[in-house]
Amino acid sequence: GRGRGAPPISLQAVWTADNGRIPPWKGDFHHDLNTQLSYWPGYGANHLEETMGFIDHLEENKENYRRYTRLFFEKEGLAVPGVTTLDGSEMGGWVPYSLSPTVSAWLAHHYYLQWRYSMDRKFLREKAYPWFRETCTFLEQVTVTDAAGKRKLPISSSPEINDNRVTAWFPDNTNYDLALMKFAFSTASELAGELGLTGEAEHWQKRSAELGGYALSDHRELMIAPSLAYAHSHRHFSNVMAIHPLGLIKWEDGEEAQTIIRNTIAMLDRVGPDYWVGYSYAWLGNLKARARDGAGAAQALSIFARAFCLPNGFHVNGDQTGLGYSKFTYRPFTLEGNFAFAAGIQEMLLQSHAGRVEIFPAIPEDWKEVGFRHLRAQGDFLVSARKSPSGEEVEVEAGRGGVLAVRLPFDRYEVTAGGDRVVSREGRMVRAELKAGGKIRFRRLAP
């Protein structure tokens, strides 16, 4: 469907009718996961017009968000309610996520993705950076510095952890809030620098540096908060935001990051899926793809498709098989699980969040024949690739042009680059300068 000029994807989108009753969770906009997961696959699928429908909604309601920010937090800048009506007004719900101060930082991630996948400088200047600037202005005002000079929220939470009880609140930053604040400040600095706003870039970098480190267990696993481990099965992996979707802890960063990623995912598996829902499995598929575990990603995604979807394809939150994939067996229909599933498949095929385009980063060993055409990568590149017993090849087409860094899925290859220039080749890593509309092809050579 069209992405512009229509409301963005809510919990059930156009299928809000529920047999004459109000649909589950009132069919509203839930920004503590549901809207965000619904847009995850849009960028890589090359549907940037449709993903702008989400941005348009946020832009149209900015003045209403500012009103809420002044009313509820008594601060300037931009906070967005976690649960809203069609015009962005606060609806309430469980307080820790419906009134969370870091919602606009998670929404900022979508502005960042829209910029990175499109490289549209007008969008960066007029929409992306202004959203980050206002979000960070608010976060700077709402945080305090502790005795050690570390910046923190006066009170912190993690979506749906301890429900709506008083124990849902923490005196120290949860990993959820911390990751979102780190992302917001550091990215605001990056975008200000991109626009030549040196003073602002330095200011946001300083705020970012004031945030402390993530809460890690003795086994280097991401906890929920310094005082709470992920020791009980929970559907919302809010503690792992730094790994995915935010990509602040990346596999490409090396051994320390890989240890945290591996151990955190192993912990999710070990504690188990008793209280997971469908989107938990879809999210786990994305996480395992980021950890280069193709078999694990495929398994998580296939459980989602098999156990948490009706024959018509709708995701219904609970396990429908009776095979013990979750103790939730109910059937409320929401859309975000299906979209996160699609994003998980994209993550297996192509990743570009770490400053390079990586082809087939998480493909199971037994996938002998796999391919895709025109997935979009950050930096405004369209990528096609295929792998089969008869051969393997990759093609990258530039939009606006620029330097392409690509990691190929094979060691020996020939390059066809037209008038574009290969800058360097080091094993599977290739750097090339592509003109606007330029194409480069790689074909695997037999060993």
Summarize the entry for a quick read:
38% of the residues lie in helices and 15% in strands. The protein is α+β, with helices and mostly antiparallel strands. Helix 1 (34-44) packs parallel to helix 12 (336-349).
Structural descriptors:
5-stranded antiparallel beta sheet, alpha+beta, 447 residues, 38% helix, 14 strands, 12 helices, 5-stranded mixed beta sheet, globular
Written account of the structure:
The radius of gyration is 22 Å and the shape is globular. A hairpin with a 5-residue loop joins strand 3 and strand 4. The strands form four sheets. The chain has a five-stranded mixed β-sheet with strand order 5-6-10-13-12. A five-stranded antiparallel β-sheet has the order 7-8-9-14-11, with no helix packed on it. Strands 1-2 form a two-stranded antiparallel sheet. With 447 residues, it is α+β, with helices and mostly antiparallel strands. It is built from twelve helices and 14 strands. Helix 2 (48-60) packs antiparallel against helix 5 and helix 5 (103-118) runs antiparallel to helix 6. The longest helix has 22 residues, at 121-142. The model has no long low-confidence stretch (mean pLDDT 96). The termini are far apart.
Q: Strand order, main sheet: write it out.
A: 5-6-10-13-12
**Count the helices. How many?**
12
Report the strand count.
Answer: 14
Query: What's the overall average pLDDT, rounded?
Result: 96
Distance between the termini: 46 Å
Global shape: globular
Order of helices and strands: EHHHEHHHEEHHHHHHEEEEEEEEEE
Q: Give me the Rg, rounded.
A: 22 Å
SS content category: alpha+beta
Strand content: 5-15%
The residue fraction in helices comes out at 25-40%
Summarize the biggest pleated sheet.
5 strands, mixed
